[in-house]
Amino acid sequence: MEKRKIILDCDPGHDDAIAIMLAGKSPYVDLLGITVVAGNQTIEKTVRNALNVCQHLNIDVPVHGGCGQPMIRHRQMIADDIHGKTGLDGPIFEELTRRAEDKHGVNYIIDTLMESDGDITVVTTGPMTNLAMAMRMEPRIIPKIQEIVLMGGSMGLGNVTPAAEFNIIADADAAFVCFTSGRPITMMGLDVTRKVLCVPQVVERMDKIKNKASQLFVDLMRHFNKSQKEVFGWEGGPLHDPVTIAYLIDPSVVTLKAMNTEIDIRSTSSYGRTNCEFFNYNKKEANSNVAVDIDVEKFWDIIEQGIRNYQ
User: In Å, how far from its chain's centre is CA 258?
Assistant: First the structure.
């Protein structure tokens, strides 16, 4: 199987960190670079978190800081109730010596896509600001994108408001730009990511691997599960973001349905909702593939193998 070339755009974040881990040593993924956006914490903290994970796991890819605020909205949302003061509370990392690249993340996306043969997938596991800004700055990159794979949205209930999921509501205008770009877009929403709860038995399973990656996984998930229990009442936190990478490693892990998805950027109570035409009653052309189910057992097998790749 040919490796999928990807740019991973993220806002680490505990589940983003696991997505980086999964992509970093996969024989099925060619991780070209990491771009970082504000989301789970401020841009300064999310960049530091990406660097810490890469240094800790010896993932040798460039890390580029990107946008620290939404395209239009005046206020950046963060998720410190879930991810803590650092955005990656739990692990204790060694002194950070890795540094972010000088080039802005948006410029990195533009330059990398422009120099490509149209064979790069852009994976977003945070607000879609960096990718949308790149599209606006240089529209010629749009046909160069092989596929956009995002964690975000929901066909059903949100997790910030009844209507909206965090990554979309944090910059719904950016999501609107990406969903109307005309490129193939695959959405991993809360409908599937809430099915992969990292319950204590999963943490124990990964702990038995006994390598640097498994220890990081355990340290991350102990904090993540504690905060998810406090906020949502779950015994295990949903491991949202790695579903994107698991799909690239083995597309059969999720069940997709083609449908038209519109981003609500006009209302107040439903701002940021991903309106997915599941039944296509209005006969709209599909613009997205939306994950509607996930093979939970296969997903955890992919996570385990991803951790074992660091042996």
Answer: 20
Largest Cα–Cα separation, the chain:
56
pTM for the model: 0.96
d(CA 173, CA 66): 17
Tell me if residue 11 is catalytic: yes
4-308 falls under which CATH superfamily?
A: Ribonucleoside hydrolase-like (3.90.245.10)
Sequence-ordered list of residues with C-beta below 8 angstroms from that of 149, at least 6 positions apart, any chain: 121, 122, 123, 124, 185, 186, 188, 244, 247, 248
Per the CB < 8 A criterion, the answer to whether 212 and 311 are in contact is no
Query: Are 237 and 198 within 8 A, CB to CB?
Result: yes
Residues 110-167: tens digit of each pLDDT: 999 999 999 999 999 999 999 999 999 999 999 999 999 999 999 999 999 999 999 9
CB of 37 within 8 A of CB of 43? yes
- Rounded Cα gap, residues 187 and 287, in angstroms: 11
**Exactly one of 9, 11, 191, 219 is catalytic; which is it?**
11
CA angle at residue 33 from 27 to 37, to 5 degrees? 125
C-alpha torsion 109→112→114→118, nearest 10: -100
Amino acid identity of residue 24, one-letter, is G
Which letter, b or e, does each residue of 249-275 get, where b requires 16 or more Cβ atoms within 10 Å of its Cβ?
bbeebbebeebbbbbbbeeeeebbbbe
Write down the domain spans for the chain.
4-308
